[in-house]
Design goal:
This protein has 416 residues and is of the alpha/beta class. It is built from 14 helices and 22 strands. It has three domains: 178 residues, Rossmann fold; 192 residues, Rossmann fold; 31 residues, no CATH class. A hairpin with a 5-residue loop joins strand 6 and strand 7. The structure holds flavin mononucleotide. Flavin mononucleotide binds next to helix 5.
């Protein structure tokens, strides 16, 4: 019996050869597959290869005697529709409502009753192009699931985002979607999650900054674990923070102001169920700089290093306190983090209580630096609805267990 029916569409990218590896794995694992390829895709891989892998003939023409309605029937037949690789051209055509070949006509005739996933693959500049970016946003808002891209060496010789997600990761996502290996949360449990990760920097001048020691490893672990469980993750990641392994929608920040703006935009424009605020946000920004009695602006190129420098710092507002007011989903669940440095138990609890008193968070994760040694990363998860009455709900010894505990707490509460 077939494990699921997949309408597998390919468009013109060098990554078509990787799509063949995925096709082969899906066919070997009992999926029923119909392949549709654009004319360009067939310049990258031959029809004979695609037919050999799936055991079925490849659909390429919209106008074929006896099969004129296949742009309707194929989509109705499928349990899952996947465009892999998705070229910049097809993505932009989808968003513009153009239907001039079988792949684009199938999209325009799609009723969105079936999941429609796309796995982009392209040169980094094609991906970053405002046309492609706005098309991707539009497609997502219509209900298309964007599978993200990996980064690394691209076929064009450049390095950056835009690589097709590795076939084995895509295979895992599909298996999970169809309930294989019992790994995934059921589709109705899947949450839209925003994670912040890594540390912000405080610019002193155009070349210097004050940083903190955050590596972003907790954020990356959470992002990977939650993605693997089938949730839709957006990661706001510090430029130098550890990258997640599983591809997610990502945005990069450097300063407090960058992160504040991104949080405002993301939370006000998208319906998130959960925000996990794991970033180490600087408590201060530089208010003024002076050297030798002379004041400088932080935006100047470089302060001369020959003299002593005086920095005046002012306090930043706490971003965690504002997450609910930024969010258009007022029922969003907020997970905050508190790091203490080698405090006794009572002082640790006091620090968490203080954060709970203003953060309006649902859950607070506490770590103490003294309890982070090598892979051991003790964390306590508190329910913080009533700041005066914190409830310890889990205590874990490493980041993977933290991700697991958080996930089950968030899923058990359901969608906001
Ligand atoms: C060698 C080569 C590699 C290409 N790789 C990509 C790619 O990875 N992603 C992409 O969007 N376009 C790529 N292109 C450009 C597309 O193939 C081109 O835009 C084509 O018209 C896409 O047709 P389609 O979208 O109908 O499949 C490549 C072109 C060439 C010649």
């Amino acid at each position: 019996m077939s494990k699921g029916k997949i309408l597998f569409q390919l468009s013109g990218s060098i990554a078509c050869f990787k799509a063949c590896q995925l096709l082969s794995k899906l066919a070997q694992n009992g999926y029923e597959i119909e392949v549709v390829a654009t004319a360009s895709a067939l310049k990258f891989v031959g029809e004979a290869t695609l037919e050999g892998l799936t055991g079925r003939r490849v659909h390429r023409e919209a106008f074929e005697p006896g099969q004129y309605m296949k742009h309707i029937h194929l989509a109705r037949w499928a349990d899952l529709i996947l465009l892999c690789p998705a070229s910049a051209n097809v993505i932009n055509k989808f968003a513009a409502g153009i239907a001039d070949d079988l792949v684009t006509t199938l999209f325009l005739a799609n009723d969105f009753k079936k999941p429609f996933w796309i796995a982009p693959a392209m040169n980094v500049e094609m991906l970053r192009h405002p046309a492609t970016q706005s098309s991707l946003e539009k497609l997502e808002s219509w209900g298309v699931r964007l599978l993200g891209t990996g980064s690394g060496a691209l076929a064009c010789g450049e390095v950056g985002e835009g690589r097709l997600i590795e076939p084995e990761i895509l295979f895992g996502m599909i298996e999970k979607h169809f309930g294989g290996r019992g790994e995934v949360s059921r589709a109705e449990d899947s949450l839209k999650i925003l994670i912040t990760s890594g540390g912000t920097r405080v610019p002193i001048d155009g070349v210097r900054s004050i940083a903190n020691f955050s590596t972003g490893s907790t954020g990356a672990t959470l992002s990977d674990a939650l993605t693997a469980r089938g949730h839709s993750v957006t990661l706001l990641r510090a430029r130098d923070a550890l990258a997640p392994r599983a591809p997610v929608r990502e945005k990069e920040f450097v300063t407090f102001q960058d992160l504040e703006t991104m949080l405002k935009t993301e939370l006000s424009e998208r319906d998130y169920d959960v925000v996990i605020h794991a970033a180490a946000v600087s408590d201060y920004s530089v208010a003024s700089l002076s050297s030798n009695g002379k004041d400088f602006s932080t935006s100047i190129g470089k302060v001369d290093s020959g003299e002593e420098l005086t920095l005046k710092l002012h306090r930043n507002p706490k971003l965690i306190d504002q997450l609910r007011s930024f969010s258009r989903n007022k029922a969003i669940r907020v997970v905050g983090f508190k790091l203490t440095n080698s405090l006794g138990e009572a002082e640790q609890l006091e620090a968490v209580r203080k954060l709970a008193s203003h953060a309006r968070a649902d859950l607070l994760v506490h770590n103490d630096l003294g309890e982070i040694v090598g892979a051991r990363h003790r964390a306590r998860i508190y329910s913080s609805h009533d700041p005066k009455n914190l409830v310890l709900i889990a205590e874990v010894e490493d980041k993977a267990s933290l991700a697991k505990s958080l996930e089950s707490l968030l899923v058990s509460k359901g969608r906001a």
